[in-house]
Design brief:
By secondary structure, the chain is an alpha/beta fold. The strands form five sheets. It has a seven-stranded mixed beta sheet, with helices on both faces. Strand 15 and strand 16 form a beta hairpin. Helix 8 crosses helix 10 (221-236).
Length: 598
Amino acid sequence: MSPTAQPDHAQVWADAMLAAALLAIDPGLGGAAVRAGPGPVRDGWIAGLRGLHTDQTPWRRLPPRVGDDRLLGGLDLAAALGSGTRVLQRGLLAEADGGVLIAPMAERLDGGVAARLTSALDEGAVRIERDGASERTPTRFVLVALDEGLEDERPPEALLERLAFRLDLDGVGWREALPISATPDDIAEARAALTQVAAPDEAAIHAVCAAAEALGVASLRAPCLTLRAASALAALEGRDAIEAEDLSTAARLVLSPRATRLPPQPEPDEDTAEPEREPDEAEAETDTGDAPDPEAEPDAPEMQPGELDDLVLEAARSALPEGLEAMWAASGQTMRGAPTRSGPTGAKLPAAKRGRRIGSRPGRPDGAASLDLVETLKTAAPWQRLRGARPGEARGALRVRRDDFRIRRFEQRAESTVIFVVDASGSAALQRLAETKGAVELLLAEAYVRRTQVALIAFRKEAAEILLPPTRSLARARRELAALAGGGTTPLASALETAAALALGERAKGRTPLLVVMTDGRGNIALDGAAFRTRAEQDALTACRRIRAAGLSAALIDVSPRPRGDGAKLAEAMGATFASLPYVEAERVRDLVKALEI
């Protein structure tokens, strides 16, 4: 299948069910990220995975906003209060040992929960270092991350990296979602055979690593998971050694969904190709005596060095994600790449009584902090026998001391302000103003959901001007943007100083500022208004260093059709993320700003 061809949905489903069988054979593959909305197709895949396990297999579902008590385990408060001793309870990860853990809406998974899941997958164990306890409980489970997000929403990359398979079932119809033919007995037999499969040889390792490199897969875990999947495939087929077919199928299942670029197409060597010719009669008579016996089985030809590499890469190439060719052919490239996230959001700030709960700490409750009753009782419960009963105290009374008090901790995400600093001078205005206006409007359309405000600073002629103070008003932005004209000289230093002052003002209001400077980097007006290019360049570099010293997050987009390095030099002085977009569209500017969240 070419990258732009329509996928064969029946083959997609067959591959998804094969992945389910491999997970049942070898839980060490980590799991699968299943991209599909709620419906019969997704339910059918989960039912197929469940049908490959016995009734005794643990099957757990991760609740939304799960806390550490339920996820990792910890003190059993009721048992501790009843017995006066510390009693620990098992968490979800320990309960899922030897089974499957389902994570719904994985694209919204909290970062802390994702970190604990990745730690359990890496170590094969759950560590409890809380409530005065220190324990390590072994656990090995298959994680199924259900991805229901929009196009730009994905589960945490650190979690996806540890899951062997990434299955996209969005285009599969329920008629194509046929049940799997394997049974739990087949899986049990394959699990037993897996221990007898020989380790991959040097040629297999080289072929998988070469395919990963050609597809732009940077993670070292991907080739390891590919070889592990190939071993499970060999066990499923009853073989005691990995064959080329196993490597090809494993590369198609594991490497292809991770591809970030197209591998080079092999070119036929026309010089060495010999045209076919008909043998003359003398040759035909001579060859008849040495003709092979058609009933004899020919020996399988040995694979030459490099042929296995090509075979594995071709199998991975045939299953590349749709649209990868167009994505890789896009002219814009981001340097010092930042991870793609859901959009610019403010910094996490501690709060006293509002926001997302992040735990508790020792302290005394007062008007600024509230008592965490449950954590206070957990702290006091294990010490009841040692503290003893006081004269006249009621039987069974709980003795709480001042150092047992715990107060709640909360976290709020501050609003963020994206400050566009746009070059409206003659050198850049004609190519860039329309795209910038469109990008600002697109960001403002999402501002309410993302808790983001947008400001606009344009610079031309002698100085910079704040055209749009921080706002979420789309109507106001459109009025100001419609009046923005271009042309004139380039007061870049003035623009950077104005942007820094506005960003510091936003920070003082509790917001998180992000500067997005769109320029070709060639200023020609100094800070005092003089038209001296050398002084203008020095003033611009000084302003960049001030922005870096202030700790302001920034991104510089070189909008020159032929970048000459001026923008990269300014970005380095500013400590900013740098990107070069010689061919700009409003949607690409919007997506880049969302990806440049710091």
